[in-house]
Amino acid sequence: MYSELFEQPDSIRKTFQLELSNMEKISERLTAVNRIYLVGCGSSLSTAYTAKDALEMVTSLNIDVFTGYEFFYNKKLDNENSAAIFTSQSGETADTLAALRKANELGIYTIAISNEGDSSMIKEANDSIVTRCGREEAILGTKTYVTQLSSLYQILFSASDYDRADELLEELHSIPDLMEDIIKKTEEENKKLAQDLKDEDVFYCLGSGPNYGLAYKLAMTMLMEGALKHSCPIYSSEFRHGLIERAEKDVPIIFLDSDYDSDEITQKAIDFSENLSAKTIVFKLQDYSNINNLLSPFILVIPLEWFVYYLAHYNGEDPGSTRHIGKVRY
């Protein structure tokens, strides 16, 4: 995981260098569809949540998110002028692959995004994007996460009616340079944070808008898979519907704050937690970059990766391996 964390910037650069023209072709076709389905599992599902929420804040694109399992068994899929984008590190994730095959049967325009160029998903989709990360070994999905998310943003914002799309995409292409700087600057502070919290067993992870997808990844595939800590992702607005009763003294709660309009409720939750003396951990986009806040997950994921890496380390765990999960899920 340590080495792959450092490979994230170049993975994005290489993906754009080799796949941008292909992405532009796909974007052009997507401008004519009425509905877009985003399908994935684990980290790939988190990129779908983030892309959907980012786009729905500023565009009129009609987007639905499904796990592969849910998509496969859904009886109300719209196959009239629809498209489906399937994301998978391996391109062999069983339920995502089954969902892609169902979409093909229904005549839905299919796009696969995977890190494995010879995978079943890449071969069977109508169009495909191969993320250029090299082999990824660590279970957390560092470089495949950022390249999948970069690909989704490039394809979907190019196909959208967002009036600042060109500006946002220009900033997207500057992300690798920003990442290199943030990777260097955030290791030590998050190493210390991990040491301070190494004995905690349960973490709650909250974010709004595009940051909910990152909160989902943080809880599901970083803290639980990588650091073997119990964790739960929650939309910030749902704080007052449940977690408010568990936000007690010394309970660790991680907030992702990027000054979205919806982060008004995030700040209220932070204030409430601090008043209760909960262990309130806030990752604010403004502390790292002044980039368009729709791109926040690309920035905040870096300090979170360092935090989880060292949290595992201080508990004697390997953040790149698992006990029960295979990296390629057949």
UniProtKB/TrEMBL annotation:
GO terms for biological process: carbohydrate metabolic process; fructose 6-phosphate metabolic process; protein N-linked glycosylation; UDP-N-acetylglucosamine metabolic process. It is an enzyme of class 2 (transferase). The keyword Repeat applies. GO terms for molecular function: carbohydrate derivative binding; glucose-6-phosphate isomerase activity; glutamine-fructose-6-phosphate transaminase (isomerizing) activity; mannose-6-phosphate isomerase activity. Keywords: Aminotransferase, Repeat, Transferase. Gene3D superfamilies: Glucose-6-phosphate isomerase like protein, domain 1 (3.40.50.10490). The keyword Ribonucleoprotein does not apply. This is Glutamine--fructose-6-phosphate aminotransferase. It comes from Methanobrevibacter cuticularis. The gene is glmS_2.
